[in-house]
Amino acid sequence: MTGSFTLAFVPGVTPGKWARVWQERLPETELTLVQVTNADAGPKVRAGEADAALLRLPGDREDLHAIPLYTEVTVVVFPKDHEFAAADELSLEDLKPHVLWQPLDDPLDWDAMPGQPPVERPQTTADAIELVAAGVGLLVVPQSLARLHHRKDLKYVPLSDAPQSRVALAFPIRDENPELVEHMIGIVRGRTVNSTRGPEPVKKQAPKQQQRRGPAPQQKKQPAKRAKPRRGR
Rg (Cα) of the chain, in Å, rounded? Predict the structure, then answer.
């Protein structure tokens, strides 16, 4: 199969393993990976600038199908010398006395922010990380983003009762290239080549010289008919 496929992905999501499988299964179809912000992922797909996107839910899903793939662990980020340094896990109750940053690109869906509200919101998660490293406030993010912005002077632990984000594969409801999207769905879901909805393997036929005909079926012999005796005249 020839052609091309563009897959957008948001920060923290690592599509490399799926890209390798794509190259193995569809070597003639070029796969292009494009990193975008979570806010831009949906619009990129709707505009046709990407065939599909790996994004976080909840999020912009207008005119898009979204297949959830996995749920991310939510963590709280703080300096290594913070009072939480010895904790293995924290709860929202623990955060109440502390300033909690909520960057404008926050992927979590909060009913109400815990902790003390900051004076202003940082533009990005990276900006919020810098503030935490300076000893000002804490940050709650999906674990993949904490890993992406890892620093030696910071630590993070799971937050037990915080909202979580789910990573999903999104593509247009009116898809113009359903076959390639179906291939990508199979790859991110871990389907094998021989699975029902994955690409069908080529069936090899035996060479003609090796095809032998079986013995001809034997015909059953019909019993001989007896001659009728003649009547006298």
Answer: 31
